[in-house]
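Design a sequence for this backbone.
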């Protein structure tokens, strides 16, 4: 049986085993002088995607699904999106949160509105306390009038008018 013969090329001092010489680029065969930087760029910035863009992506994906859905992955790769993010957008859209109306307007900060809300709540609590005190005072006045035999006019809630004590006696 004949065994194939392997011709050995003379190895230079720069080669390792049967590999190409170290420090030589694949394309040109010229020595590599610069290495690409391994530093991570510091200026990476998170994308701010608008509601209109998200809705446009959802509509495109919906049309791709109608066509058979085989090119959705390619579309998402082209746009640089993940399917999980698109699913979240879809849920937000279904619940009406992707319309852009929920995004706070610039100008008035949430801190200022929170302060105003707290102020209004304090005012409401104070007003409710005053109302309770007024109701207690009115009840006491009614009881004192009844003890002293002083007739008080009645309030007709249907016509919002006071009835005089004499008109009550006529109607009874």
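Sequence:
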């Amino acid at each position: 049986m004949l065994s194939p013969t392997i011709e050995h090329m003379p190895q230079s001092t720069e080669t390792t085993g049967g590999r190409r010489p170290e420090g030589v680029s694949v394309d040109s065969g010229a020595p590599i002088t610069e290495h690409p930087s391994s530093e991570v760029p510091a200026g990476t910035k998170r994308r701010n995607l608008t509601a209109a863009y998200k809705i446009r992506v959802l509509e495109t994906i919906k049309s791709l699904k109608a066509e058979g859905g085989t090119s959705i992955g390619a579309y998402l790769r082209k746009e640089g999106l993940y399917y999980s993010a698109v699913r979240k957008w879809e849920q937000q859209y279904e619940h009406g949160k992707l319309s852009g109306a929920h995004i706070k307007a610039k100008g008035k900060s949430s801190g200022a509105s929170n302060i105003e809300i707290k102020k209004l709540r304090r005012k409401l609590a104070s007003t409710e306390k005053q109302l309770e005190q007024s109701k207690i005072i009115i009840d006491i006045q009614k009881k004192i009038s009844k003890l002293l035999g002083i007739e008080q006019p009645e309030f007709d809630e249907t016509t919002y008018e006071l009835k005089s004590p004499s008109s009550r006696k006529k109607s009874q």
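The CA atoms of residues 59 and 65 lie 10 Å apart.
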